[in-house]
Amino acid sequence: MKSPRWMPLTVLVASLASSTNAFADSAPTPMRAAGMVLLLLAPSDIGVIDSDAGTDLALGWSAQLPLSLRQRLVAGLDVNPGAHDHTWRGRLAYRYAWRYPFIGAGVTLDAAGATWSPEFGVRFLHTQPSMAEANPALHLLARMDLAPGFDRTRALTVLLGWTWY
Question: Could you identify which of 30, 47, 74, 77 might form a hypothetical disulfide with 159, taking C-beta atoms 3.0 to 4.6 angstroms apart as the criterion?
Fold first, then answer.
């Protein structure tokens, strides 16, 4: 059986995330520096978006700013290659996280306008035993794009990805 193309990236992410030493302990090695750049450029989420126009691939880049131990401000950009009505989406949201589940609500903007975007997700495969510090993990999340009047669902997105916090 042939190894999937994404396997080297998965191994790199797992090896970087499994380190318990803080990055400030020493100067980054060239391999770690290259891995950090790759993590910034690679999508943090991959999944599908289902809208009136059909189902398409969704790639997402997002960043979380910790406001407290459990609260995050999330900014993100989704690119949906092949989609006709949602080729890109920007999002600004608030997220509240427990160790495993998280919930959030935000505003999404795309070419068709603004929508409300509630989300629910589950984190798993944590690298640290608590949330008291940076705790890389994988996540699975579902997000809806609701029309401003809450009368219509414009899209539903399901994403698998990783987070640093």
Answer: 47
